[in-house]
Amino acid sequence: MKKALIITLFALLGMSAMAQEKINWMSIEEAAERCAKEPKMVFIDVYTDWCGWCKRMDRSTFANPVIAKYMNEHFYAVKFDAETLDTITFQGQQYVGFVREDGKKGSHRLARTLLNGRMSYPSYVIMNEEMRTLQVIGGYQTEQQFEPMIHFFGDGAYKVMSGEDFLKDFKSELGEPDQKQ
C-alpha cells in the first residue's frame, strides 16, 4: 500500500511539473543576443492584440506542456507584436512602428520584413541559428498541426528531407487530440 502511494505521489509530481512548463518568450533583440552567444534556432510568433486566433494559440497550442518543453529546448521563442510602435534594432538595422494618416497604428516595419509583406495573424517565422529565415507559416495551428512542424525544423529534418517525408515517420508525444478544439 505504501509503495503504491509513493508511486502515485511521484507520478502526480511529475505531471504537475510538466503541466507548469511554459514557453520562455523573449524579445527579438534578446533572441539575437542569445543566439550570438549560444546559437539556437529562433521561432517568432507575429501577433496583434486584437487577433482572436492569436489569443487562441496562446491558450491552447502554446500552453501545451509538451509543445512548451520542446520549444524551450530547441528554439529561442520570440513574441512580436506586429503593431508595436517601438523602434527595434535587428541585424544592424533600425525598424520603426508607424501610425497611418488616419492616426491608427499600422503594422511595424520589422513585421512587414519578417512576413515578406503578407500581413496575416498569427504568423510564425522559423529562423536558423544565424537568424536567417527558413520558413514563414501563417494561420492558427492546433497542437497536432504545430508539433510536427516544430520538430521538422527543430530536429534539423528540413536539411535532409521534405516535410511530406518527415510526416510519414513522425511520432507525436501529445497523446490523443483534445476534442475542445
Short précis:
The protein is an alpha/beta fold and 181 residues long. The strands form 2 sheets. Strands 1-3-2-6-7 form a 5-stranded mixed β-sheet. A two-stranded antiparallel sheet has the order 4-5. It is 39% helix and 18% strand.
Helix content percent band: 25-40%
User: Any idea what the CATH architecture is?
Assistant: 3-Layer(aba) Sandwich
What number of domains?
1
User: What structural class is derived from the secondary structure elements?
Assistant: alpha/beta
> How many alpha or pi helices?
7
The stretches of 5 or more residues where confidence is low (pLDDT under 50) are none
Q: Going by CATH, what is the homologous superfamily?
A: Glutaredoxin
CATH class assignment: Alpha Beta
Tell me the overall shape: globular
Nearest-integer average pLDDT: 88
Beta-strand content: 15-25%
Give the radius of gyration. 19 Å
CATH topology: Glutaredoxin
Total number of beta strands: 7
End-to-end CA span = 39 Å
Helix and strand string, N-terminal first?
Answer: HEHEHHEEEHEEHH
* Order of neighbouring strands in the sheet with most strands: 1-3-2-6-7
Describe the fold and architecture.
39% of the residues lie in helices and 18% in strands. It has a single domain (24-169), classed as Glutaredoxin (3-Layer(aba) Sandwich), CATH 3.40.30.10. The strands form two sheets. The protein has a five-stranded mixed beta sheet. A two-stranded antiparallel sheet has the order 4-5. The longest helix has 18 residues, at 2-19. It is of the alpha/beta class. Strand 4 and strand 5 form a beta hairpin. Helix 4 (65-74) runs parallel beside helix 6 (143-154). The protein is globular, with a radius of gyration of 19 Å.
